[in-house]
Amino acid sequence: MYGPPTVRAAVACLLLVVAASGAVAGAPIDSAAVGQSTLSGNAILQQETPVDQRNNSSVRHEDPDAADGQGDTERVRSFLASSLGERLEGSVINLSQGEYERARGMLGDEYDEDLGKFVDVAGDTEGGTGGDAFESAVERQREYVNRTQSYRETKAEYREAIEAGNETRARELARELARTAAAVNRTGENLTASYTAIENATGANMSREERTVRTISANISADAAAVTQSTFVSTRLTLSADRESASFLDPLELTGRLMTENGSPVSNRSITLSVGDRTIDVRTGENGSFSTAYRPTTLPLDRERLSVRYAPDDGSVYLPSTATVPIAVQQVTAAVDVDGPETAAFGEQITVRGSVAAEDVPVSGVPVRVTLGDAVLGTVRTDDAGEYVLRTALPAGVDDGNRTLSATVALADRAVTSDAASDTIRVTSTDTRLRLNASMSGDAAAVSGRLTTVEGDAVAGRAIDVLLDGRVVATADTNASGAFSTTVSIPDSVPAGTSLTVRVTFDGVGSNLDGASATATLSLPEGDDGGAGGAGDGASGGLLQAIVDGDAPIVLGAAALVAIAAAAAAFILLRGRGDDADPSTDGAPAKSASDTGGDAESTGALLEELAGRHLDESPSVAVEIAFGVLRESVESRFDIDPSLTHREFAAACRERGLFDDRAGDLVALTDSYERAAFGPRGVSRSTAADAIERVRALQP
pLDDT: is 613 or 177 the higher one? Predict the structure, then answer.
């Protein structure tokens, strides 16, 4: 998550900054000053002054033995541990006062920055650990702050409902308070465990934070219990069964009675019982009695007692209660039906239907796993009629040809199981396309691209082989958008200034996708020492020549896209002016629009030559190149920072009033470029042609 250790050279500067700053998170707080609240106000605990910044005159988290000496990384580590600990404490104290935004603020970007530095330094110190503990603590503390705030806000809604006489709403909110209080306690226990981990790793004293968290949690638990006691009526459930042995085909007959804690019957009410793996609706009689049949489906075979729970709805005045009876589960094998489409191809939505029944009795609520070949298409539960429907897209990992579609109850050692049912689907193959971007990055090649179908659908989770001059040197997997990237070292045996062929391949083995490949040529820069290291004009030239010559479909991606696209335009313009063009003119003062007529005409012709070359086969590439041509032209004339993103570039143009009369064209072009460069489907030919025309119109 954090960068490599780079702190040794900066230790002295960091210590100077520490000395100059004089403040990290604030002054230590005496825990005795932290008092309890009844939660009737905004605070969970009370203290006079909110904690924003705390005086660092007393660094209680620092190990004095580790701080001996000036400028060592151990002292920096100790200081950073202190800073992180003070922020955690300051956040908890603000939380105790009901200052939730301040509590979150102390765990924000500055905490993350200090944590990154701490991880760097910890790697340079003896026994340097604790980064994971601090990271776990901040994640859990953020969650703790959010849940504590949620409790307070729900409590305020509860009071409003009580004051308005809305008893049903008040009971719903009271149950929500009980659930939130339980979540606060769970998160608080996890948080204090993180504090302990910090203490073990760094020697820091986190006892104040732990006491404050435990006090907050205890107050919330007590408050929620008081709300529950004042709002609800406790119940008592009694239960019996006609026998112990039961199966899906031989259900258990249950009889029971629901009473209040003081012995009054919960009479003439429709109630819901949670019985083992199912819910059953029954109605109580005059004396609170009821009876029902229970068919086990997903209950484990080794279960010895059946638990039945009265589960009131959120608006009910009653609290839940539970009873159990002995049970011995006998397994039943059900029959499964399955039906799928005749044919399917990658990415197509397919629908699989079927049913599950035992001796013609529908089996509801059981999971059915559907597979095609060796791939799991998904798991879906049967409805009340025992039927299931699975809709999903056909994944790539199913070989083309006739494949077996199977469905089975996805249970083992449970009350209901099944044999597999099968059908046949003919899976057809799909053509794919690989796009490649290769550029020099120091003494290595940065290789990226995207794998899609010929229709532009992303292909995720596939392995792409990277070859240098015919030899596989790396493998990269495509992500959810079909993109891949990797960096490969250039062999020392490759002479500087020579060309290197980069090829990426997808073989399609083990899938319903046909293979694809793409190739580009890199020119290694001339190094001062005659080696292959160092990225220069030659590095860009090899890539750019591949674009110009149309040898490979190229996708320009990520942060390098803007620079490469602009360099492409510069390469084109220089080639258009002739081989003897004076490169020193690149640094000339910006020209006015009236001075650039000849260049604009030349640029337009080259734009048509370059972007037009890709218009039919790779319209997204055409848009990227066209946008790059515009950027180069504008940046060189109006001194606009070439490192800006595409959106920042458009904003800079607007700020300078460059295209006031064609602002709509700039917005549309920027949107098209974004879809071409980063969208999973790219753009159409018509969109690309429109983008080229807009670039012509926008040429200064």
Answer: 177
Structure tokens, 515: 């293979």
- Least Cα distance to 428 among 403, 404, 453, 400 occurs for 400
> From the CA atom positions of the chain, what is the Rg in Å?
34
**Mean pLDDT lowest among 123-132, 172-181, 435-444, 557-566:** 557-566
Closest CA to 46 of 38, 56, 36, 55: 36
Burial class of 387 by CB neighbour count within 10 A (0 to 12, 13 to 18, 19+): middle
Question: Which is it for the CA torsion 529, 533, 535, 537, positive or negative?
Answer: positive
**Which residues have a Cβ under 8 Å from the Cβ of 226 and sit 6 or more positions away?**
none
Q: Which residue shows structure tokens 């597999």?
A: 420
Which two tokens mark 50? 């909110």
Place of tokens 């794919």: 432
Contact 18, 126 (CB under 8 A): no
Q: Which residue has the higher pLDDT, 199 or 387?
A: 387
- 9 burial via Cβ count (<10 Å: 0-12, 13-18, 19+): exposed
Q: Write out pLDDT tens, residues 122-174.
A: 664 444 467 888 999 999 999 999 999 999 999 999 999 999 999 999 999 99
DSSP string, 73-113: HHHHHHHHHHHHHHHHHHHHHHHHTT-HHHHHHTTSHHHHH
Q: In this predicted structure, which of 38-42, 203-207, 364-368, 389-393 has the lowest mean pLDDT?
A: 38-42
Token pair for residue 266?
């919960």
Residues in the chain: 700
Q: Which of 284, 123, 293, 152 is closest to 227 using CA atoms?
A: 152
Q: Which residues face 264 on adjacent strands?
A: none
- How many Å apart are CA 243 and CA 589, to the nearest integer? 97
- Reference 215, options 96, 87, 103, 98; nearest CA is 96
0.70 surpassed by pTM: no
- Say which DSSP state 641 is in: -
Give CA–CA dist 337/405, Å, rounded. Answer: 11
* CA–CA separation, 387 and 371 (whole Å): 17
The tally of CA atoms less than 13 A away on the side-chain side of residue 233 is 16
Burial class from Cβ neighbours inside 10 Å (0-12, 13-18, 19+) for residue 69 reads exposed
Q: What is the spatial distance between Cα 476 and Cα 466, in angstroms, rounded to a whole number? A: 8
What integer best gives the mean pLDDT of the chain? 79
115 burial type by CB count under 10 A (0-12 exposed, 13-18 middle, 19+ buried): buried
Q: Which of 339, 335, 175, 319 is nearest to 261 (CA)?
A: 319
Strands 421-427 and 343-344 come out as parallel
Q: What is the pLDDT of residue 612?
A: 63
State how far the Cα of 514 lies from the Cα of 181, in Å rounded to an integer: 55
The CB density around residue 409, as the number of other CB atoms within 10 Å, is 24
**Contacting residues for 650 by C-beta, under 8 A, at least 6 apart:** 666, 667, 670
Q: Are 180 and 221 a contacting pair, CB within 8 Å?
A: no
Quick one: pLDDT at residue 629? 81
DSSP 451-474: EEETT--B--S-EEEEEETTEEEE
Concatenating the DSSP letter of every residue in 386-453 gives SEEEEEEEPPTTS-SEEEEEEEEE--SSBSEEE--EEEEEEEPPB-EEEEEEEEEETTEEEEEEEEEE
Structure tokens at 39: 């939660």
Let me know: does 216 contact 191? Beta carbons within 8 Å: no
- Rounded CA-CA distance 647/659 in Å is 15
Tell me the per-residue pLDDT of 634-667, one tens digit each, with 9 for 90 and over.
887 788 877 677 888 888 888 888 887 788 888 8
What are 117's two structure tokens? 């530095």
Mean pLDDT of 24-53: 39
Q: Can you tell me the distance from the alpha carbon of 597 to that of 96, in angstroms, rounded to the nearest whole number?
A: 69
Q: How confident is the model at residue 227 (pLDDT cuts 50, 70, 90)?
A: very high
Distance separating alpha carbons of residues 681 and 700, to the nearest angstrom: 31
